[in-house]
Amino acid sequence: MTAQKREITRDDILPLETYAAQRKERRAKSAEMKRTRRLGVGPFCTFYFENYDTMFQQIHEMLYIEKGGEEQIADELAAYNPLIPNGREFVATIMFEINDAVQRDKELRRLAHVEDFIFIDIGGERAKAVPEQDVERTTADGKTSSVHFVHFPLTDEQAEKFKDPSVDVSLVISHENYGHIAMMPKDVREALVDDLA
User: Most exposed among 59, 107, 111, 171, judged by the fewest C-beta atoms under 10 Å?
Assistant: First the structure.
């Protein structure tokens, strides 16, 4: 199962023509898989849990759209390989999705350092989000980014509890200006269990 692979290599990259011929089918399969790897928390925040397959698709889409050749392949691998779970963590892209530009700016200015207030509650134990360190996501004037990349490292005990369907699991944002909790549904948990193999 590709979800358990931990790294995309140059040898995994399809020729552009091959991907172009398969693109429609691959995008449809990817959309179906992502359906059970997505969870909304509050009115405008969505977590998209990544794995080998989502990053494989993302890299190929970037290469298809930008057509940057060999140099771009190296850049995309460097950018997206860190977002593949290592077997004892979950990795998520977090998006604050607000269509209206004025409202979006207002809300993002209220959410400085929101990434420090995110965790998964696994039967009362917290698996705290650890942000990717590629760039600072909150500007000097206190506006956070609309996109964040975080890891949720788990202890062995937390991983085992997560696999137990009798244990409640929720996704929590405890920021003072965005306090919301979402229970993790069965289909999402089942999809994420593969990330812990």
Answer: 107
Give the bridge partners for 136, in sequence order: none
Pick from 5, 20, 88, 105: which is nearest to 51 by CA? 5
Query: Cα dihedral angle (95, 98, 104, 107), rounded to 10 degrees?
Result: -70
Sequence-ordered list of residues with C-beta below 8 angstroms from that of 34, at least 6 positions apart, any chain: 48, 54
CB 7 within 8 A of CB 81: yes
Amino acid at 40: G
pLDDT along the chain (197 residues), means of 10: 74 95 96 95 98 96 93 94 94 96 96 96 97 82 93 96 97 98 96 91
Beta-bridged to residue 149, according to DSSP, are 93
Yes or no: say if 71 and 10 are a contact pair by the CB < 8 Å rule: no
Per the CB < 8 A criterion, the answer to whether 130 and 152 are in contact is yes
**Where are the extended beta strands (E) located within 125-185?**
125-128, 130-131, 147-153, 169-175, 178-183
Domain boundaries, the chain: 2-196
